[in-house]
Amino acid sequence: MNLERVDLNLLVYLDVLLREGSVTRAANQLGITQPAMSNGLKRLRDLFNDPLMVRTSEGMTATERALSVQPLVRQILSNIEQVVEPVEQFNAQLSDRMFRIMVSDYAGVTLVPKLVARVRAQAPQVVLDFMTPSDVTYVDVEQGKVDLAINRFDSLPQSFHKRLVWKDGFSVLCHESHPGAQELSLQAYLNAEHVWVSKTGMGVGVGVHPEKDKSVQVGWVDEYLAELGHKRRICMFTRHYQVSALLEENPDLLVTLPTRIAKMQADQAHLVLLSPSFDIPPFELTMAWSPLLQHNPAHRWLRQLVIDVASGSME
User: Fold this and answer.
1) Are 151 and 243 a contacting pair, CB within 8 Å?
2) How far apart (Å, rounded) are the C-alpha atoms in residues 173 and 253?
3) What is the pLDDT of residues 42-76, one digit of tens each?
4) Exposure of 268 by Cβ count < 10 A (0-12 exposed, 13-18 middle, 19+ buried)?
5) Residues 162-183, buried b or exposed e (16+ Cβ, 10 A)?
6) Could you tell me if 281 and 82 are in contact, meaning their C-beta atoms sit under 8 angstroms apart?
7) How far apart are CA 115 and CA 126, in angstroms?
């Protein structure tokens, strides 16, 4: 194929069309008429020799070919944007930009306070809008409506950029009067009653029903226990890491938490921090962002600030 005959605007049409999943919405996004968008789709079908979008009972659905080229098209357009984007400096001291950041409850407790302090020191007029995983979808991140998503991710769309913030392990927290406070053997751990704490991922969370499906493991800790042929007794489920007051009032409970959280909670009187009596592999806190923001000077400043704060907190 002669590339000189390829209209690059068609790639812009395809990128928006696949994001919107609708000819009408894509036309509105691009500021063109629906007939013009329909004509663009026809030319794209000729170019790729594939229907790209087909009408189903659920609306317009992307074909396998369209899905396979989507991240490549997004990367091509991102590279073009980098080439033609004017070189401008980001002045943190003078900027009044708002950054929208999705953070898990874990990141909100461990990372956000220090990040806010650093932003206020370097960019006093910048506004930060912190959102929960339930507030945000992958589409919001992909379209750049959310600047960063900071969480533990099992998987991410191929088009996303990502960077490791830090790794964290697990520790056990209990009241000093708990039978296992002095020496927490595996059997003592299994005999105890536990608080389950977890809230990760994207989208609206669902309730936990462990008794309805005995095969379901409700968290990382339970997954690794199951590999050893064991199961703990969970008497309470919560999505919040602020459990120190709970342990004060219920000294017979154990809670297994990410170590950074556990150390912060252990500062409370009468609480003891212990190592688990079995191996729990560490997990990764990751930040992810849209390719649309990869080369934005303000966004680069924010990403580097997150890494600087994370590195400082590990010292």
Assistant:
1) no
2) 9
3) 999 999 999 999 988 878 899 999 999 998 898 88
4) middle
5) eeebbebebbbbbbeebebbee
6) no
7) 12
Q: What is the DSSP string of 178-224?
A: STTSS---HHHHHHSEEEEE---SSS------TTT-TT---SHHHHH
Please state, in angstroms and rounded to a whole number, the distance separating the CA atoms of residues 194 and 192. 6
Q: How far apart are CA 69 and CA 77, in angstroms?
A: 12
> Closest by alpha carbon to 75, among 161, 159, 162?
159
What sections of the chain are H helices per DSSP?
Answer: 9-20, 23-30, 34-48, 64-84, 105-110, 112-122, 138-142, 186-191, 220-227, 244-249, 259-265, 297-313
**pTM of the predicted model, to two decimals?**
0.68
Task: Find tokens 């462990």 and name the residue.
Answer: 210
- CA–CA separation, 100 vs 232, rounded Å? 38
Count of alpha carbons within 13 Å of 289, Cβ hemisphere only? 22
Pairing of the two strands 253-258 and 193-197? parallel
Asked if residue 306 has pLDDT above 80, the reply is: yes
| Rounded CA separation 110/103 (Å) | 10
Report d(CA 61, CA 64) in Å as an integer: 10
End-to-end CA distance of the chain: 55
Residue 96: closest CA among 127, 134, 65: 127
Tokens of 149: 């998503």
Mean pLDDT of all residues in 196-213: 49
Q: State phi, psi for 259 to the nearest 5 degrees.
A: -60, -40
267: tokens are 């500062």
